[in-house]
Amino acid sequence: MTKKRIIGGLTKIAVGTIDQKLLAEATKLVNNQLEKRKGYLHVPDVVSLPITEAGEALEKYGFNYGKFKVTPQAKYANLLPNVVFKVKPRIGSAVPPDTFIKIYFADQQVIADSQQLAAAAAEKKVLKQQQRSATWHQIADPAKKKATSLVKKINFNRQKKTDE
């Protein structure tokens, strides 16, 4: 028997044993949820729009919205100034028409500060890599020298034996 037949058979048995009253309640609950979500709207994609245009687009749909300027962080170094880069709730989410939408943007000052933070983080990363490399060389170089000298001694001893 295939998995589909087994699952289908078990489903028929399970459905047959469910009380009709319980089934009616479940159907009523699902229908209530569908009716409740009937008037829901999808959050429009306003990412990459200037904040004024994004606000106008949200107003067309009847949403209330707020503009939120982010604080400087290295991850915001490459954003465009006064352009929406994040929306909450997520784009495409089905929400009631009275949902408050948050649009996030960065102005020129935030981007400049973020670029400084990103440059500092990059320098710190390079220094850390150099330190790791130096530590590795401190460990590996003496070991390499020791191994080389041992190989030379072994080869020297072999040459003596072959010469004799």
Cα-atom radius of gyration: 34 Å
Could you name the CATH class of the domain at 39-113? Alpha Beta
| Topology order in helix (H) and strand (E) letters | HHEHEEEEH
Poorly predicted runs:
none
Count of alpha/pi helices:
4
Q: Estimate the mean pLDDT confidence.
A: 83
**Helix vs. strand class:** mainly alpha
Helical residues, percent: 55-70%
Domain PASTA: 37-107
Protein name: PASTA domain-containing protein
Sequence-ordered SSE layout with sheet pairings:
Blueprint: H1 3-17, H2 20-36, E1 41-42, H3 51-60, E2 64-69, E3 86-88, E4 94-95, E5 100-105, H4 108-163
Parallel strand pairs: 2-5
Antiparallel strand pairs: 1-4, 3-5
Provide a quick synopsis of the model:
This protein is mainly alpha-helical and 164 residues long.
